[in-house]
Amino acid sequence: MRVHHIDGTTVLITASPAISLVNTLLSAGISIHHRCGGKAECGTCRVRVISAAQEKGAANTMSPKEAQRLEAINAHPEEGERLACQTYIYGDCDVYLFG
Hints:
Blueprint: E1 2-4, E2 10-12, H1 21-27, E3 46-51, H2 64-73, E4 81-83, E5 93-97
């Protein structure tokens, strides 16, 4: 997967569907905020995930708790907006970091 930083740099890393995106990023040395420790309570690990193969999907389905948190942060979340602590990557994708 390609990780796009806010400064415009891009890094290529490998993801495992058994490991959350936030832990995948941290293991790769990519800094990402995650105040609540992966409980979908704070929203600080917000990212945008865009599948390279739109018909297949590159990540797990969003849970109702994750959807509620994203709506609390932004009344109109962007397409592909996710919480990295709740996201598991299954395929080729681009991940955009917000901050």
